[in-house]
Amino acid sequence: MDAIQALQRTPLFGELDGPDLEALATRAVERRVNRGEILFMAGDPAGGLYVVVEGSIRAYRVNADGREQTLHVEKAGATLAEVAVFDEGCYPSTTAAEEDSVLLFIEKRDVLSLCLERPRISVAALKLLARRVRNCAALVESLSLRDVDRRLAGLLCDEASDHSRRSGSSVTFELALTHQQMASRIGSVREVVSRALARLEQGGLIEMDGRRITIPDEKALRDYGAG
C-alpha cells in the first residue's frame, strides 16, 4: 500500500482531495517497528503524529511499580499522537508494536498547516479527539466501578467480536492475548486474570479448551460485563 492510500484510510485525512494527499504523502516518512519495539515514550517531545499502515500499536501508561494500563490499541487506518500535536505538549502515553508494523510519520507543522487551510480536517480532528475523550471516560468508569471479572467479561466479548465463529447465540474464538496482555487491558495483574477466567468458567459464562474460548450466550456475558 502506498502512502496516499494509507492516508485515505484514516478518518483524519480521508476527505483530502488528490493534490493535498499527494503533498502530504511526500512529507510523510515511513517507519517500521518490530513486535515489542517502542515507538515513543510518555513524556517524550512530540514532533508529529503517526498513521498506522500495517500492524497493531498499543498505547499504555506504566506506574512506578511497573504495572501497565493499556489505553487503546490502534490498527491499520488509525492515527496516533493527535493530542500531543494539537496541545503542543509531550506524548501522553508510551506506544509499542503488538506485531511487526509499518507507520507513516507526519510532522506537527504539516498537520497544523492543513488544519488552517482545510476546515474539514479541523472538524475531523475535533471528532477524533472527542472520541478519545469518550473512550477515556469509559475506561475510567470501567476501572472505577466494575470488578475484574466484569472487566474481563467485557474484554472477552470485544475479542469475540473480532475473531469469532458464531452458531446461534454461541461464539467460539481463539484467544490471541496472553494473560499478561489481558491484565494490562483491564488494569489488573496476570494472576488475578487467571483466577477471574476460572470464575467465569465455573459460572457457566465461558468454556475454555486451551486457548479456545466458547461463549455459550454472548448476550449474557456482555450483560454481566456491563454490571
What can you tell me about this protein's structure?
- It is a single chain.
- By secondary structure, the protein is α+β, with helices and mostly antiparallel strands.
- It is elongated.
- 46% of the residues lie in helices and 26% in strands.
- Strand 11 and strand 12 (212-215) form a beta hairpin.
- It has 2 domains: 3-144, Jelly Rolls; 147-226, Orthogonal Bundle (Arc Repressor Mutant, subunit A), CATH 1.10.10.
* Largest sheet geometry: 4 strands, antiparallel
Helix content range of the residues, please? 40-55%
Give the percentage of residues in beta strands.
25-35%
Q: How many structurally independent domains?
A: 2
Q: How is the CATH topology of the largest domain named?
A: Jelly Rolls
CATH superfamily of the largest domain: Jelly Rolls
Structure, briefly:
This protein has 227 residues and is α+β, with helices and mostly antiparallel strands.
Q: What topology does this entry show?
A:
Elements: H1 3-8, H2 18-27, E1 29-33, E2 38-40, E3 48-54, E4 56-62, E5 68-75, E6 79-80, H3 82-87, E7 94-97, E8 101-107, H4 108-117, H5 119-145, H6 148-163, E9 164-167, E10 170-174, H7 179-186, H8 190-202, E11 207-209, E12 212-215, H9 218-226
Antiparallel strand pairs: 1-8, 2-7, 3-6, 3-8, 4-5, 4-7, 9-10, 10-12, 11-12
